[in-house]
Amino acid sequence: MEQVVLHKRDLKHWVDLIQGGSQVFVPSRVSGEIFFLPYAGQLESDLLRGNAALPYLPPKDLVFPQSETLFSFTRGAGDIDFSVPEKPSEKRVFLGIRSCDTVGLHWLDHFYLSNFRDLYYQNRRDPLTLITIACNQPMKNCFCICCEGGPFLHPETTAFDLQLIDLEDHYLVESNSEKGKALLDLNRNLFSQPDPGIVEARDQEEQKSHTRFLKEPTSYMSAAIRGITSNSVPPEVWTELGERCFDDGGCTFVCPCCSCFGVGYTAKGETGCHYRFWDSCDYSGFTREVSGHNPRAEKGERFKRRFFHKLSYHYVKRDGRIGCVGCGRCITACPGEVGMPAVVERLRRG
Amino acid sequence: MFIRSDGKEAFGCLPMTLHPVSEGRLCHRGWNRFQNLRSLNRLSLPLVREGSNLKQVAWPEALQKTTEKISQLLSRHGPQSVGVIGSPWLTNEDNFRIARFSCDILGTSHLDGSYRFSGASALTALDRLFSGSFGSLGSIPAIAQSPTILVIGKESCRDFSPVGSRLIKAFLHGSTLVLADPLCTRKEHFFKHLLSYPIQNLATALKNKEGLPPEVSTRLLEPGLALIFLADQVDSASSLLSLLHSLSPQSAVESHLPLVLPLSRSPNLKGAWDMGIRPGAGGSTLHEMLGEESEVKGLLIFGDDLLNHLVTSSMLAKFKSLEFVLVADRFFTDTARRAHSVFPIPLLAETEGTLTNSEGRVQKLRPFLDPQGENRSVAHILHDLSRLLGKDFPVLSEPEMRKEISKNFFTYRLVASESELEKIGGILLPSPTAQLTLDILQPPEQAPEGYRLLVPNTLYAWNRNQMIHESPVLRIEYPSDRPAVRMNPLDARELKIRMGEKIRIRSDRGETQIPVELDETIPSKVLMIPSHLAELVESLAGKAVHDGAARTVFFPNLSVSVEKI
């Protein structure tokens, strides 16, 4: 891993340089809400202060959109023409992504690119470089500290590209991939070698950040993992939690790690397309069979299944980590107030 | 809510975390709302009937032929031969235009909404209660502070997440939640009590203080009560009035008025109602327009699939016999297939205007898609029809329409303020300051012998709605009803009836044979047939019961016997 220093006054210049060869997405406000939108010459002030805002919609949407065409077809004179969406020709850079979202994207990489290679995901992911801002301020519902989702990234656990760490007037820039290095190589004169005490200063910043995050809601993950893995959670607890789930699917849609999709089909006359869309294990139709039989008809069963996938050791062993990065979006999305921390706390009580 | 688009089509949506009602939460319809925007089933060109076929034509020809038909009806039979149907799927501005067009251009007072059988009874009751337009009867965020909440129908929290989230907040703060639902066997843990009563029986039980747990009787009469129900499920105005009266014994004290939230599955039920989409003096309701003796010979239907709403086969027969039907809609619906002229209009996502939600909050709709195909706005359609009829109906902009609305409807006086409308959360209409004066009590339902057959319209508005049809997720979530009766599995076991097997159901008015679907959520000794299975329902219930206040019909619960064939 390479470490260099970037003065904050040079950040915009560097972004402009990146923009010359890539499409840059930065957190931007629309009606007060934050989205990753194409960079248009301005950076949000919190980014310049060394803190990235957490958009409600995770950046997974840019590599795995809520809905996308898989292929379309047109019946011609005797033949059927098929077309698959073209691969994005331009490189893309996400600047200002929070640590938890970077970890979430790597979780999706594991799902979509390790066992089989999903063409559509890969086409969007390959040209993508992530510039993470190490978090120094927790948002309202952050609990990444309980999920190894932040606030700082470490190369031994997350294969990030670049990480920016706020050190007053400067960023310490950590490069951990060839893609990251390529962005530093755009103009090496913008970057200087760190002073001898910089590693110590970095560790102090991380420690301070940890202290701030500890004030936020924390989750008893180990108790929940043990209870779920050993199947020792009483069924009535799942029933109770399931009753608070309104089957809206919001938690799965805003979860940086949730990867389930369904496939739809639409046609009119001689043209049509197949497309996929985010699906949710909250939905009763997720597992209902054509006959009408549903192996998980009860809400409690669906709820249990969701958290089994998120927290059981079976999946931790297979996927390398729990399926939660502690971003806290499910807390915002859940009308039943059963986001991850509330569930984990309930499981701990038994 | 944000709809996300790649410039060509919508591919996702996201609720606003800063919105005072949603706070970033949606139900599953909301989260999948964008999917019908990519439907290939959109109407793109006007259609005109030629023999048994509908033929695509250019707008001038479609307008000309449609105007000729309307003129023929007007000259032969007079203005009252034409009926007009507005819709809760149109904006306030468009509904107000439709109301003005009916009155000023056509001269007919036969105007109504497609909601006559699914919501109008509840709104009629509230109008009577407050002697006119009732504005807002309480905000959704305020539910969380209510010490006692009476929820009628279990869908009221599940299918309306912003409401459900306030119920949970209230529960966590120690409020008492009571669920009333005759089609429910098990309450969720956050409900303290489950009352298996239909609305009218609940009103009687409250009035007589019989059969209810003492705590329920006491708490429901304390100040600060919130009453939440699905307007679509209120079968008669008098049943809701009875309940409201039972809940407000000290009616002269304003603070004792409960917070009332009539929920709706359509986006603008209250707005369409408030904009005057209901009969004028001497006019007929939709039920009356499609009555056997009706003078209506032609219908102009805007923004809805009317056939989905008709609850009796005689109305369907009358509809089929109409001399002329114009449908202005977004999709090629069942109603459009039977029309003589079909005009494509923009989706709400392509329309500017305002909608009024269940709590009386007027919010601005911002179009994010360009109108597709040859869609033409309701404003321009009405203008063109008027011009060809030799009259002037100017195309006013949406802000100009809002000024007109603010002048015509006192509770909407603030909607002319564009700056207020631009605020996140829009404008909450003022609350009424009225006294409860009516005391309409229905006779209590007789305790049934044998089985009780319930005929709710709970399901049909969902799974036959175009929004559901055009979304793959929602199509799976709301599978179509099969023509079957739902029954508790324990009852079926007792009668040795298996899933799918036919049974004979007898009432004192008729009998039918119908397959059984087993449903654990249906209480024992209760059968359920969705009301849109009109022929089945009529074969048992005979004629529908007339709701004099709302001038509509409904099928009351029936006592029936069941036997295996």
Helices and strands in order, then pairings?
The complex is a heterodimer of chains A (350) and B (565).
Chain A: E1 2-7, H1 11-21, E2 22-30, E3 33-38, H2 45-48, H3 60-63, E4 67-75, E5 80-83, E6 91-98, H4 99-113, H5 119-125, E7 128-133, E8 162-167, E9 170-175, H6 178-184, E10 191-192, H7 198-214, H8 221-229, H9 235-243, H10 250-254, E11 261-268, E12 271-278, H11 299-311, H12 313-319, H13 329-333, H14 340-349
Parallel strand pairs in A: 2-6, 6-7, 7-8
Antiparallel strand pairs in A: 1-9, 1-10, 2-3, 4-5, 4-12, 8-9, 11-12
Helix pairs in contact in A: 8-14, 9-11, 11-12
Chain B: E1 2-5, E2 10-14, H1 28-31, E3 47-50, E4 53-56, H2 59-77, E5 82-86, H3 92-106, E6 111-113, H4 120-129, E7 148-152, H5 155-158, H6 161-172, E8 176-180, E9 193-195, H7 199-208, H8 214-220, E10 226-230, H9 237-247, E11 259-263, H10 269-274, H11 286-289, E12 298-302, H12 313-321, E13 324-329, H13 334-337, E14 341-344, E15 353-356, E16 361-365, H14 378-388, H15 398-408, H16 418-422, E17 427-428, E18 451-454, H17 460-463, H18 466-469, H19 472-477, E19 485-487, H20 489-494, E20 502-507, E21 510-518, E22 526-528, H21 534-541, E23 545-547, E24 552-554, E25 558-564
Parallel strand pairs in B: 5-6, 5-12, 7-8, 7-10, 8-9, 10-11, 12-13, 13-14, 18-22, 19-21
Antiparallel strand pairs in B: 1-2, 3-4, 3-14, 15-16, 16-17, 18-25, 19-22, 20-21, 20-25, 23-24
Task: Give a verbal description of the structure.
The complex is a heterodimer of chains A (350) and B (565). Chain A has 350 residues and is of the alpha+beta class. Chain A is built from 14 helices and twelve strands. Chain A has an eight-stranded mixed sheet, sandwiched between helices. Chain A has a four-stranded antiparallel sheet with strand order 5-4-12-11, with no helix packed on it. The radius of gyration of chain A is 22 Å and the shape is globular. The model of chain A has no long low-confidence stretch (mean pLDDT 92). With 565 residues, chain B is an alpha/beta fold. Chain B starts with a strand and ends with a strand. In chain B, 55% of the residues are buried. Chains A and B meet through strand 11 and strand 12 of A and strand 2, helix 1, helix 6 and helix 19 of B.
